[in-house]
Amino acid sequence: MTRPTTRSKARAAARLAATQALYQHEMEATPVTRLLHEFHQHRLGATIEDAEYAEAEVDFFDDVVKGATARLAEIDAAITGKLASGWTLGRLDRSMRAILRAGTYELMARPDVPTATVITEYVDVAHAFFDKREAGFVNGLLDAIAKDVRS
Description:
single chain; mainly alpha; two-stranded antiparallel ribbon; 7 helices
């Protein structure tokens, strides 16, 4: 079994933080610039209430947050296009929307990251918030989106 590299751990921490930032952005309409500053100063690599946050790859975090918010309409259209009949984006939990938006952004805009890595990483993020069923939903939906946006 291979051990995660420092870079992969930093990227995993960046993905989790980006998901949290996108959730906060939707909940509080925090401007992206202020949101990034808050995460840089107080969350990434910090210890909050005895929980130590892993050192995140800051540039990667910034790219996912800025990119997902800048391309929100395109990302939401891609997600909506893969939802089952009768389902809307609004029916999904906000945390789920944040995970799917971050993952979809990476699939669309980060060809340097292998498809399997993107999907696996966001399934791992889903496990931090949800049960196995929801993590499976993330897997299936991101896989379907990947088939459309990556050749």
